[in-house]
Design a protein that fits this description.
Layout (H helix, E strand, L loop, with lengths): L1 H6 L4 E3 L4 H5 L1 H14 L6 H6 L1 E3 L3 H5 L4 E4 L5 H14 L5 E4 L6 H5 L8 E3 L21
Length: about 140
């Protein structure tokens, strides 16, 4: 997801709860971008990589963001905890998006003060490249 957004020219801040994942992230992203360059899909990996900031502090990553994409494990309790932390570290109107494949948003956002600012968005249909409309509270329908 980081590369998709960065390739579109947006600045991206990357966070992970596991420091070892963050420590290798820049190199892994560069290697993937290099592969895309070899396939003729990107022109300059360095330019894209320059738009990606790896940061171990969640508040610094999401503070001031208008859009946050969560790509955590498919685990309800973990997502509820993640969204509690995200809501506490972001502005009330920040859009919080999950790449969940099998958990409805209402199950992991119902406890939040602003569940209406949460949605499910997969990397292939990022809200940054699609139109969407904010609605009311989520239902399972």
């Amino acid at each position: 997801m980081v590369m998709v957004i960065a390739r579109a020219g947006r600045s991206v801040r990357l966070y992970d709860t596991q420091e070892e994942a963050l420590s290798g992230a820049t190199e892994a992203i560069y290697m993937s971008l290099h592969d895309l360059q070899c396939a003729g899909l990107v022109k300059d990996p360095e330019v894209i990589l320059a738009g990606i900031q790896v940061e171990p502090n969640l508040a610094l990553v999401v503070g001031g963001a208008g859009y946050v994409q969560e790509c955590g494990p498919e685990n309800l309790e973990m997502k509820q905890a993640i969204y509690s932390r995200l809501e506490g570290a972001t502005a009330p109107d920040t859009v919080l998006a999950s790449s969940t494949s099998g958990i409805t948003a209402s199950r992991f956002t119902g406890h939040l003060a602003h569940p209406e600012h949460c949605l499910v968005a997969h990397p292939v249909n990022s809200p940054l490249s699609c139109s969407y409309r904010r609605g009311g509270a989520f239902t399972d329908d």
